[in-house]
Design brief:
InterPro entries: ExbB/TolQ_transport, MotA_ExbB_proton_chnl. Keywords: Cell inner membrane, Cell membrane, Membrane, Protein transport, Transmembrane, Transmembrane helix, Transport. By secondary structure, the protein is mainly α. The protein has two domains: 2-225, no CATH class; 230-256. The chain has helices at residues 2-6, 9-15, 18-49, 54-59, 64-74, 79-97, 103-106, 109-128, 132-164, 169-224, 231-255. Helix 5 (64-74) runs antiparallel to helix 6 (79-97) and helix 8 runs antiparallel to helix 10. The longest helix has 56 residues, at 169-224. The protein is rod-shaped.
């Protein structure tokens, strides 16, 4: 029992050299960083779920000012609020400087709105992708860092065994098994990072597609004064109109 208890993480740390300790500390730092990013992104996704319905509330508002107030109330500091604010600022800039001789005043109104919306989407995309490179790097490199620690630990253990001249199983199994723990540490760091990276990437893709659709609607509204109705809604309206016209035509034919 005492021999079994002698081997473990504490024994590995005590008998390891500076290289193994540096690898272990590096894996620990990578794990803390990845879990910080994972938890921060999870909290952001929870906040984003509370913003659902804010876009429809914006379009249901009677005017632009009321719609912006609804966005700031239901989705504060969200990419959707920033996009609407940027578009409104661009439209206001056009109204103020249409007759101006400056470079901004000479630009086409549609181009000014498009650039403003693209700038807002670019900033939102940069914010959504913040930390993703670090998370992907941790997920891809952590197994190799752990494998390096394993190889170095086995080499260090075999050198000590060779120096002592005792190569029995009980002398080899302990140090080699402890060295293999570094590979397990690498996988423990990498697997959550990879899974979280895939989940966050998918969530970002969905949010950016919704943001892009909102930008198209805003561009149409600022350019023409009307939002582009979804295709399904247009088809439903056409079917409703057809059903309303059909009885009138039938009544007219009967009267004839």
């Amino acid at each position: 029992m005492e021999t079994t208890q002698a081997f473990g993480l504490a024994h590995l740390w005590a008998q390891s050299d500076a290289v193994i300790r540096a690898v272990a500390l590096m894996l620990l730092l990578m794990s803390v960083t990845s879990w910080y990013l994972i938890l921060a992104r999870a909290l952001r996704q929870l906040r984003a779920r509370h913003h659902e319905g804010a876009v429809e509330a914006f379009w249901a508002a009677p005017d632009l000012e009321s719609g912006l107030k609804r966005l700031s109330t239901q989705a504060p500091e969200s990419p959707f609020e920033a996009l609407a604010q940027q578009g409104a600022a661009a439209a206001q800039h056009i109204r103020r400087h249409t007759a101006s001789e400056t470079l901004g005043g000479k630009l086409d109104a549609d181009e000014v709105i498009t650039r403003a919306l693209r700038k807002s989407i670019a900033l939102s995309t940069a914010g959504l992708e913040s930390g993703m490179t670090v998370l992907a790097s941790i997920g891809s490199t952590a197994p190799f860092v752990g494998l390096f620690g394993t190889v170095w630990g086995i080499y260090h253990a075999l050198v000590n065994i060779s120096a002592s001249g005792m190569a029995t199983l009980d002398k080899v199994a302990g140090p080699v098994g402890e060295a293999l723990i570094m590979t397990a540490f690498g996988l423990f760091v990498a697997i959550p990072a990879v899974l979280a990276y895939n989940a966050i990437t998918r969530a970002n893709r969905v949010e950016l597609s919704e943001l892009d659709a909102f930008a198209h609607d805003l561009h149409a509204w600022f350019s023409t004064g009307a939002r582009i109705a979804p295709v399904a809604l247009q088809a439903a309206n056409e079917r409703t109109s057809a059903r309303a016209v059909a009885p009138i035509d039938g009544a007219a034919n009967g009267a004839a």
